[in-house]
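task queued by scheduler; priority normal; single chain, no ligands, no partner chains; default sampling; output format set to structure tokens
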Amino acid sequence: MTYEIGMVFLIAIISYLLGAISFTRVVARIKSPENDIVDTEIQFVDADETMKVGHIGANVVGQTLGAKWGMLVGLMDISKVFLPSLACKLLFPELPYYTLLAGIAGMAGHNWPIYYRFRGGMGFSAAMGSLLAVDWLAVLVLPIAGTLLGMLVRNMVVASLSWLWLLIPWMWWRASDPVYVLYAISLNLLFMLAMIPEIKKAIIYWREGRLDEYGESILRSNPMGRGMIKMAEKFNLSVREK
């Protein structure tokens, strides 16, 4: 297998630029041109205060325009990473690292879009799009496994985020090549870097003793989060610590 430096840069640049397209902003501008979605605020539970959204993604569209539009944007965000990754897989079947690179670059573009002053999403949909091309079975198995793990430890954060953490041992098991493990680690790092502003906010609210309220406010601000809360209540999971 021979990887060309020029092709590596070309795939990385094209995948990044496609990933940087903010369908959240495009759809919001078409549906509600009078409102700037960047200024969307979240109502803080149990308090008469609001806070601006930290990331511009499908959840914000779901919050402002409704669940069906949020789902549409989520599918578009998945596709913008899936399609270039799939193209690499089909065009260079003997060079799988190109497919991995396209997924990583696409997620980086989604999280830090050059067109919008590098303010983008968290990367969940982008990671899903990449995984569809790299290992579609992971898209089916890991979210279910993460939810079950959250139920086991009775923690909503684990239920919502652990599918991405589980990707690392999954790739260790599924692929004999350690580069696939590095790929999984890279997706996790991109997510954690994108979450730095939220982590800083969480630390502030933790110091104020309002970390649980902060987490619940974010969940209740969008249809997906509200669905997770309903699921948590059904299985007796706690949104807040008791």
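post-processing summary
- Residues 5-234 form one domain.
- The chain has twelve helices and two strands.
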